[in-house]
Amino acid sequence: MSITYLEAIQAAQDKALEDNESVYIYGQDVGSFGGAFKATKNLAKKYPGRVIDAPISEDAMVGSAIGASAEGMRPVLEMQFADFSTVAINQIGNQAATQFWRTGVPCPITVRLPSGGTEGGGPFHSQSMEAIYAQYPGLIILTPGTVEDAYSMLLEAIEIDDPVIFCEHKYLYYHLKADRLPHKNLPVGKARIARAGKHATVVTYSAMLHEALLAADGLKEEGWDIEIVDLRSIKPIDTDTILASVARTGRLLCVSEAFPWGGVNAEVISRVTSEGFHLLDAPPQRLNAKDTPIPFHPDLWKTHRPTSQAIASSLRNLLRY
Amino acid sequence: MSITYLEAIQAAQDKALEDNESVYIYGQDVGSFGGAFKATKNLAKKYPGRVIDAPISEDAMVGSAIGASAEGMRPVLEMQFADFSTVAINQIGNQAATQFWRTGVPCPITVRLPSGGTEGGGPFHSQSMEAIYAQYPGLIILTPGTVEDAYSMLLEAIEIDDPVIFCEHKYLYYHLKADRLPHKNLPVGKARIARAGKHATVVTYSAMLHEALLAADGLKEEGWDIEIVDLRSIKPIDTDTILASVARTGRLLCVSEAFPWGGVNAEVISRVTSEGFHLLDAPPQRLNAKDTPIPFHPDLWKTHRPTSQAIASSLRNLLRY
Amino acid sequence: MAEAEIKVAKKESSDPASQYRAAFRYMLLARTFEERTASLYRAGKIVGGVFMGKGQEAFSVGLALALDKEREDIYGPLIRDQAGRLAFGEQLIDAARTYLGSVKGPMRARDGNVHRGNIHDGMIPMISHLGSHISVVSGRLIGKRFNNKSNFVGGVCIGDGGTSTGAFHEALNQAAVEKLPLVVAVADNQFAYSTSTERQFACKDLVDRAIGYGFEGYSIDGTNLDVCLETFDKAVNRAREGHGPQLVIGHLLRLCGHGEHDDASYISDERKKQAFGGDCLQIAQQHLLDSGISNKIEISQWTSDIVKQVEDATSAAQREPGPDPFQETWQALSTSHLSEGNATT
Amino acid sequence: MAEAEIKVAKKESSDPASQYRAAFRYMLLARTFEERTASLYRAGKIVGGVFMGKGQEAFSVGLALALDKEREDIYGPLIRDQAGRLAFGEQLIDAARTYLGSVKGPMRARDGNVHRGNIHDGMIPMISHLGSHISVVSGRLIGKRFNNKSNFVGGVCIGDGGTSTGAFHEALNQAAVEKLPLVVAVADNQFAYSTSTERQFACKDLVDRAIGYGFEGYSIDGTNLDVCLETFDKAVNRAREGHGPQLVIGHLLRLCGHGEHDDASYISDERKKQAFGGDCLQIAQQHLLDSGISNKIEISQWTSDIVKQVEDATSAAQREPGPDPFQETWQALSTSHLSEGNATT
Ligand SMILES: Cc1ncc(C[n+]2csc(CCOP(=O)(O)OP(=O)(O)O)c2C)c(N)n1
Ligand SMILES: Cc1ncc(C[n+]2csc(CCOP(=O)(O)OP(=O)(O)O)c2C)c(N)n1
Ligand SMILES: [Mg+2]
Ligand SMILES: [Mg+2]
User: Fold this and answer.
1) Which residues in D lie closer than 8 A to residue B71 (C-beta atoms)?
2) Is D211 among the domain residues?
3) Rounded CA gap, A314 and B1, in Å?
4) How confident is the model at residue C342, as a pLDDT?
C-alpha cells in the first residue's frame, strides 16, 4: 500500500471525525464534492451533517468557527487556497488568536491552508503565508513536509486547544508518498533531523525539505555531508534542535519558499546568532523566493522559488567560506 | 514656533493637496471633522471635495484608491487605526502591491496607519503592523520617528509611484515637537545616525527611537557611547548604514515595538550576520514587544513594550559580553 | 440590592408593566453608570475610550430583555450596550472593574472598557473590528445545534456604520443560509463617529437590506421603549420558533459624542428636535408617569438606589488592585508547552 | 479579418439586428476560443486553470457591448467573461498569448489565463480574490470624476458565489454612497464551483439586494441574448444619465465544470432542462434563423472564419517565446532605486 500526502490529510480528518464527535469540517465545496483538492473526499457521506459547504465568506467562516469552539466544538476549516485566507486574517489574527489571552477561554480551531507554489499557480494560488500568521501572538503554525507529519500533525492540530494554522503544501499533495501512516510520530514542537551530516546545516520545512534533500544528495558526491533540519512547526520553533545541529556543523543555511523579507529564515538566523553565535564558523545564509509576486509561467516560477540547484550552489559558497 | 509630529502630518497633507491637484484624501471622518486624531484638520474646508469621508469599508477604500490611481490620481488613505487596516490587507498586499509587477502600471497610493501603543490603547488600537506589510513584495514601508521625517517622508510617500504604507506613531503625535519643518531632509531609503557612539549600535525606528535615545543618555553616565541608527524606512532597509555603524562598534542591538516573531529585528540581524559577520564582537541581540496581544492596562503595557530601561539593561548585557 | 431586584422583575413576570419597569431601571442604571464613567474619564481615572449609550438604552435593553440566559441565549453587545449588558445579566461591578483596570475584572485588565464579556456566560467580548463579532455569535448557535440543543437564540448589536463592513455582510448572509435563530439589532443613531448616514449608505432605511439576505425585518422608533420591547420580543420569538434570522433597525440619535473625547459639535440642535431625536430615558419616564405604571416617588427611590449602586461599584473597583506585570504569564497560548515565552526576545 | 469586422458592427450600428449579429459572433468566437483552450489544457499545453464561460456568453457580451471605450468606459470582467472581453475590444491574440505563456501577452507571462487585463485600455486585470475588483472599477470612476470627465460608465462582472464576499458588499455600498455610474452584472449560474445557490444565499433572487444598497435592479433570463442586450443597454444608459448604480442579475446555468479539471457530475441533467438551463448560443442561433436576421450559410461562414481566427491566434501565440528568467528584473517596485532586489536572499 502507498499513501499520498493528500490522502494522509484526508485520512487524518476521517479519523478525527470518527474519534471525536465535536469535530466538524467547514469550507467551500468540502461537502459532497470533497473539496477542491479532494482532501475531504467521502467524508460528507460518511459523517452526515458534519462536513459542510460554506459560502464564499472566509471572514464569516472563521468567525463562526471561533463561536462554535466556545460551545465545545473543534472546527476544522478548509481555505480553498492559503491565499484566500487573507480575507479572514482579521478573524484569525485578532479574534481567534487573542481570545485565550483576553478571556482565559481556549479557542481550538484548525485552519487548513493549501499553501505554496505549483506550476501555473500564479500570484494568487501559490502563496506561503506561514510567516505572516506567525507574527500574531496566540497562533500555532504547522508546516508538515512529509506524509507522516501531514497525518500525525493534523490529528494533533485538531486536539490542540489553541488556534492552529495548518500549512499543507500543494506541491506535495500528489508527489509525496509513504508506505503507511504512522501510529506514533514526533510531537508538534519538535524539529526532526531529516538527514544527518557534519559539514553544514540546512534548516528548512515543507516542500523545500525535498529540494534540500536533493541538493544534499548531489553534494554527497562532491564529498560533503549536509545535515538537514526539518522544522515541522515554525511557531513554535525548536531552537534547541537547530542549535545542536549547528554545534555539529558550524555552518547554517536557512531555506524557505516564502517571500524574503523577515519570515522563518530571518527568525531562525536571529535565534542562532543570538544564542549560538560562537557555534558558527561562517556567516549564516538564507535562501527565499524572490521579492516579487509569484509568477504564473513555470520557467519564471522555477527561478522565483529556491530549487535544489540554488540550494546546492548556496551550500557550496557556504562550505567554501 | 513649535510644531508637533501630528501637525507635521497635517502640514504635509496640506502641502501635497496644495501642490498637486491629483492628490485627494479618503478615510473615515477625515472630512469636516478632520480625522479621529485631527491629522486632516481644516483640509476639507480648504480643499473642497478633495478630503472625503469614507464608509466603514476599509477594503473598498483601498480598492477604490487603486482604481483612482490608474486615472492619474494620488490617493492618500487614512486608516482610523493601523489595526483596522487588517481588513484591507488583501487589497493592499494582493491588489495594490502586485499591480506594477503584473501590469507595468504603477500604483501610487499612500496608506497612513496610525500605529503603535499608547496608554489604554489595548489589543486592537495599538498594533505595529509594519512587519506584516513588509513581507508583501511591492510595498514601501515608512516608519518616521521624528517630526521632520513625518513631514518630509509623507510628502515623499505621496510622490512615490508605488504603494507606500506610512506608519506614523500615535505615541509621538503630541509628545514630539520640533522648531520648524524641514525644507530638505534625508531621502526615503536612507537611515540616519540619530546619535553617534562607539561601543554598541542600536538599530531602531519610530517611537522606540526615543526610548533608545533615553537609554543611551543613561548609559553615557556609565561611560558608554551608544550609536543609534534610525531606520526611517523598514522596506527598503538601508543595510549599508547599519553595517558601517556595526563596523564602528562591533555590537548590535535591534529594538522594535512590534511582536517578536520575525519582523524588523530579525530581518536586520539576518542582514548584518550574513554580510557583516566578521564585524561583530558579540552575538547580535534584539528587543521586541512580548508575544501576547497588547495589554490595555498601562502597567501591563509598559512591561509589554520595550522601554528605555529594558533597552539599557539589554545594552549592559551586550556591552559586558 | 436593587440590581438583583431588577433581575427578578425580568425573570418572574411577563406582564408588560413589570417588564417596562424593569427595563426602565436597567436604562437608568446604565445611564447613571455611564455618566459616572464619563466623569471618571475626565478626571483621568479611566484610560482608553469611554463610549456612552446615551439615547440608545431603550433599544439596547429591548434586545437583551428578550433574551433568556436560561435557554442558553447568546448576546453580542457593542460599544453602546451598557443597558443591554446589564439586562442580560452583567454584574455592575464587573463593568466598573473593567473600566477601572482592576485585575479582578473579567478581562483581568488585559483588555478594557467596552471589550469585556464572558464567554461561558454567553456574552461575547467584542474585539474592536466592527462587524466581526456577528459571525462569532452565529458560531455559538451553530455549535449548540451540533450539540443537539434547541430553543436558543442569539442577539447581536451593531451600529449604522458597522453595516458597511464586509464582516457584517458575510455574517448576515451566512446566518440566513444556515437559517440560524439570530436577531441582529442595528442601532441607526444617525452617525458613525462624525459621519452621518448619507455618507454611510444609500438605501432609504437599513431594513431594506432584510429581504436581500432573507431575513425578516423590522424598522422601529428606537426611542420608544414600548415599541422596542414589543418588537424584540416578537423578533426573538420568531427566531426561537424557527423562522430564521431577524433584522431590527432602531431609529434614534446618539445623544453624546462618539466617545467622551468628542464634543459632537457636528450634531446640530435641529437634529435633536427631529424625529427619533428624543431621549428614550425621558420618554420612558414620562410614560411611566402618564400611564401610572410608576410614580414620582418610586422613580426617585429607584434613582437614589441606582446612584448608590453605581457609587458602590465604582469605589469598590477603584480600591481593587491593578494587574501585576510580574505575576503575568505573558503567554498567548493555552498550550503552555508550545508557548515560546521569550524565545524571540 | 472577421474579428475587426465584428467590432465595426458593434460601433457603427445601433440597430438591434446588427447588434444581435455582432453579439452572436462574439459569443461564437468566445465559445470557439474557449473550447480550443480546453483542448490545449487537456493536451498539457496550458497550465493553471481553464474556466469557461459556456452558457454565459449572452449575459457577458450584453454588458460589454453596452459599454463604450470611446467614452472611457471601464470594464471589470471575471473568469467567465471571454465573450465580454472580446466585445469590449480585447484582441484574441492577447488572450491566446496569456493562456499559452507568451511573453508578448499583456501580462508578460507573469500572470496567466483569466487574470489578464489592460489598465490603460480600461480593462481591469482581476486578481483571484473574488469581489475585490469591484471597488477598483469604482475607483476608476471616482478618478474620472476628479478629472472632471463625464459620461463614463463602469461595468463589472461577478458570480453568484462572489456576492457572498465582504468585498462585494463594501464595494456596492460604497458605489451607492458615491452615486457612481456603475453597472454590476451578477451571473447567477446556479453554482459556485460545486456549491449550489441554496448554500450560497437565502433570498429569493439576488436582485432583492438592489434596494438595500440603493441600486436600481434587474432580474433577467441570462440565456436570452435579446433580453441581455436590451437590459444592459438600459442599465448602462441609466448609469450614464446619472441615475446611480445598477444591479443586473442574469439567471442561467454553467454548462461546464467549474474549470476544465472538473467534470461537473454534480450538475444533474434535470437541472439543464429547467428554466434558464439552456445554451444561450444555441438559443441565439435559433433566433437568428427564425427571425431571418441571419441564415445557415452566413452562420456557417462566420463559424469557419472564427475557427480560422482561433487557429491563427493560438498557433501564433504558441510560436512566440516564453519569458526568460534571466531577462526579468525581478523587481516589484516601479521606483528602482528603492527596490531591494536580492538584498534579502
Ligand atoms: C473595521 C473598523 N474600522 C474602523 C473602526 C473605528 N471605529 C470605531 S467606532 C466607529 C464608528 C461606528 O459607527 P456605528 O457603527 O454607527 O456605531 P456607533 O458608534 O454610532 O454606535 C469607527 C469608525 C472600527 N472599530 N472597525
Ligand atoms: C475570496 C475567495 N475565496 C475563494 C475563492 C476560490 N474560488 C474561485 S472561483 C470560486 C467559485 C466562484 O463562484 P461564482 O462566484 O458563482 O462564479 P462562477 O465560477 O460560478 O462563475 C471559488 C470559491 C476565490 N477566488 N476568492
Ligand atoms: Mg452609529
Ligand atoms: Mg456561479
Assistant:
1) 139-140, 142-144, 146-147
2) yes
3) 56
4) 55
